[in-house]
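debug: dumping io for the single-chain case to check the tokenizer round-trip. Nothing else runs in this session.
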Amino acid sequence: MTAYGESAIPLPLALIVLAVVAVLFVSRPAWATLSQERATRVLEQSGYKDPRFGGYTYFGCGRDVYAIEFNAVSPGGSRGDGYVCCGWFKGCTVRWSD
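debug: decoded output
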């Protein structure tokens, strides 16, 4: 026992937990990327045409779980970049990037 008492979590266990969290954060795109089929359906229902997809976006969708970057023609006829964002307990939203 040290002068400050024993640690609540042993150091090796804390390092293992930290490593698991880091791996999950880095591998998030593998399980959180929205399928292109679902994103195409969302975009077409919103009036967008000719979508071209990128990959997972870390910062485009805030706290939404599933996200994919896209480039498409808007209902107004202009081509632009944006994100299709979906969550567990909500539908999907289309967001344009700045």
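debug: round-trip ok. Residues 32-96 form one domain.
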